[in-house]
Design goal:
Blueprint lengths: L13 E3 L2 E3 L3 E3 L17 H7 L5 E8 L16 H16 L4 E6 L17 E2 L8 E4 L2 E4 L4 E2 L2 H20 L4 E5 L5 H6 L14 H4 L1 H14 L4 E5 L13 H12 L6 E5 L15 H7 L4 E4 L4 H9 L5 E4 L2 H4 L3 H6 L28
Parallel strand pairs: 3-4, 3-14, 4-5, 5-10, 6-9, 10-11, 11-12, 12-13, 13-14
Antiparallel strand pairs: 1-2, 7-8
Amino acid sequence: MPHDYADSPLFHPTRAGELELSNRIVMAPLTRSRALSGDVPRPSAATYYAQRAGAGLIISEATQISDQAKGYAWTPGCYTEEQVAAWQPITQAVHDKGGRIVVQLWHVGRISHPSLQPGGAQPVAPSAVTPAGQAFTETGFQPHQQPRTLEADEIGCIVADFAYAATMARKAGFDGVELHGANGYLIDQFLRDGMNRRTDAYGGSIENRTRFLFEVVAAVSDAIGGGRTGIRLSPVTPVNDARDSDPAPLFRYAVEGLNRFGLAYLHMIEGATGGPRDVVPGFDFDVLRKTFSGTYMVNNGYNFAMADTAVHEGRADLVAFGRPFIANPDLVERLKISAPLAEADPNTFYGGEDQGYIDYPMHR
């Protein structure tokens, strides 16, 4: 890696809505499944995130907006006073290191299991379409079950839950929020016709399938400001059995509609999440980049050379790195000096305590 990469625009400060960022390298959201009872983040999360505060922006692990929103064992929430109190020293630790951190808020919809739901209830979804795959529960992997179709009057309650969790996130000290509209979770389930079979105002046409997305973004923007609200989309990923018959016009309409909210950024997963970038040959992400009027973040399989080129060529304003941040808490510094990157141990990605979490060394 040439040494002149130290002058890369990736290392230049920038702005994303109301957020002043020291560089353009973002720590992508990484589920680590280490929360405690009550879906409270563990105290050592303060060390974990502070170690990585050299990123221009940290996006936290996905964090549920309600007890119904949960889909994986040991993931945190941001909707109770106890959870907020546990997040406060974490956000403070990042700020003490000069970093910025937003919380990724999700409702997983059908990607859950009754054992993770209040009262053992069925997971909810736009339609009763059972996803392929398995849920990660406290007793191991279990097959997904058929979800219950949301009633129309329930949808507004979930929109309100997103707005409330965003308000609680600001109380917890987060600089903003990222709405998880990707990877086959609830917002994505409404968007894509392979998961949304509704015949009411939330299904059928592109206008109807994007209704829930826009209602959530509007409610959160009203609650904390559009300039502190980002959103993540994944137009073509097949993760969590997500699919759509014609994603190009759907996501162009969605992205165009997002422009009216003055968002902090749009976080775009290019290709299959954590997999091939060309999963749908010919899908033109440049169209979406040109359609969005704000700060544009790219993600999926970027190395430093690719990221540098993307920013140089104007195809991205920010570049998110995921797994490299697990084993390289000082990833930004390593990239700047062309230092070798450590490899993470996948056996400690999910669950457990501090091993494989806060014990990866700095380069120097």
